[in-house]
Amino acid sequence: MHASMATSAGRAGRANEDFASAVPGAALLLDGAGIPGTESICSHGVAWYTHRLGGALLGRLSRGDGEDLAAILAGAIDELAADHRDTCDITNPSSPQATVLMVRAHRGRLDYLLLADSFLVLDQVCAGPQVVTDEREVTARRICSAPLAGVPAGTPEYDRIRASCAEALRARRNQPGGYWIAKDDPRAAQEAVTGSRPLDDLRSVALLSNGASRIVSPYGLADWPGVLELLAADGPAEIIRRVRQAEARASGAPDARLPDDATVLHFTHLPRGDSSRQRSGPRRPA
Fold first, then answer.
1. Rounded to whole angstroms, how far apart are CA atoms 118 and 177?
2. Mean pLDDT of 236-247
């Protein structure tokens, strides 16, 4: 596989909490999350968590033994939890956590796993792009934020309700009926969205963190076929450049979003496989 990548911290002077890397035949993208100013909960921070978890995952993926991706993720979460369980309050809802997106070419197929809101774009040979994501966090956030509808931003009432909404969202994290993310509990790995496609069905594969996916939503600068065209023509850095331009234009608007860490990986020249193998799409746990 031929790989290209770009990543950008959301704000100057702040660590990039995304992590992306690849080994022969496999790649991963993590998007770190946590509550700023919670050093008393975990002294290491979100960037430390994503980098350490990413390293543990890469070590397992590099073995090339075809181990189930959910098992790989569970083992890495457990390993990292052991690294700082004795020094940090890792069960606290605000302790560091990360989304996970992994892909692996193995025995003629592309296997994938997603946990929380990153985006996998499969450039299909005989159809348009297939976009795979884990929508459960977005759904939970929308439900928990419903009380904010119609409340003027910047008012004490808005701030009070927003704090209550954030607490309600944290209560749904890694809970049945809520959403799942890599944190301290390896059982979250079994709740991931997983799937597999024959490599012969695909031209290329793209992995985007939530910050990079803003080019499609909310900014509407491209649709997913357009994202693939941009990647083919100008590479991952162009996706991020356009997102940063849109964030700058929106700055100061009442509903403006803070710039987010943004990362894109793009893989072409995929290894060819046996197209007669069974096809399967994304699977969520029952």
1. 19
2. 97
